């Protein structure tokens, strides 16, 4: 019980998401939802040992899609990307754990599936850069920005995971 309250306290009052409290934003894109890859992808993060903090199926609004990919607004593929992200619901998630931002990017593979190794999500499940099944934040500041875009604070669950002492 004491551990539970200590953990809640540290999650609520932590000034930054560091160490085992680091968080990343992961989105399973519309193509992966259509191709029934949601379970496979969620399972990889669960089995790795990361903690699920939030998960929802969302049809992203125009504003949300634009804000999310604003840095890429001058790229030639930007309008196609915005259209792709509107083509169906997205599974928006927050995962937490030690080095989760960098490790999740490794688990995703490269932006272009052709350059992604087998064993990575993009290496295993897709072939086209324009249908690359998953998004993952590229840095801690991006993760903080993206989590606040996609989730309201109350949607981030504070919960004690019994397996944590077997992971750390
Ligand atoms: P990332 O998703 O690996 O971080 P970014 O460069 O941030 O890659 O690009 C965001 C998304 O834009 C990619 O995941 C992919 O869906 C799309 N994208 C990137 N490059 C291309 C391209 O050359 N053609 C079409 N779509 C692209
Ligand atoms: Mg990116």
Automatic annotation (TrEMBL):
Reactions catalysed according to its record:
a 2'-deoxyribonucleoside 5'-diphosphate + ATP = a 2'-deoxyribonucleoside 5'-triphosphate + ADP; a ribonucleoside 5'-diphosphate + ATP = a ribonucleoside 5'-triphosphate + ADP
List the GO terms this entry assigns under cellular component, sorted alphabetically: cytoplasm; lamellipodium; nucleus; ruffle
Q: Which segment of the chain is annotated as a signal peptide?
A: 1-18
Pinpoint the Nucleoside diphosphate kinase-like domain residues.
21-158
Q: What is its EC number?
A: 2.7.4.6
**Keyword annotations of the record:** ATP-binding, Cell cycle, Cell projection, Cytoplasm, Kinase, Magnesium, Metal-binding, Nucleotide-binding, Nucleus, Signal, Transferase
CDD domains xrefs = NDPk_I
The positions annotated for binding ATP are: 29, 77, 105, 111, 122, 132
One of the GO BP terms on file: positive regulation of adenylate cyclase-activating G protein-coupled receptor signaling pathway
Q: Where is the active site?
A: 135 (pros-phosphohistidine intermediate)
Q: What does this protein do?
A: Major role in the synthesis of nucleoside triphosphates other than ATP.
Return the protein name.
Nucleoside diphosphate kinase
Q: Which organism is it from?
A: Hippocampus comes
């Amino acid at each position: 019980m004491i551990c539970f309250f200590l953990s809640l306290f540290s999650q609520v009052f932590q000034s930054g998401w560091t160490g085992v409290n680091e968080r990343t934003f992961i989105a399973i894109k519309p193509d992966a939802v259509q191709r029934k890859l949601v379970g496979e992808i969620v399972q990889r993060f669960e089995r790795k040992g990361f903690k699920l903090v939030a998960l929802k199926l969302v049809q992203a609004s125009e504003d949300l899609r634009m804000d999310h990919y604003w840095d890429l607004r001058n790229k030639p593929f930007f309008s196609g990307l915005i259209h792709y992200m509107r083509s169906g619901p997205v599974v928006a998630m927050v995962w937490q754990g030690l080095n989760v931002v960098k490790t999740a990017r490794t688990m995703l593979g490269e932006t272009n599936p052709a350059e992604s190794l087998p064993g990575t999500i993009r290496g295993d499940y897709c072939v086209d850069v324009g249908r690359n099944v998953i998004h993952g934040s590229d840095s801690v500041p991006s993760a903080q920005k993206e989590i606040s875009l996609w989730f309201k604070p109350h949607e981030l669950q504070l919960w004690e995971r019994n397996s944590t002492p077997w992971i750390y």
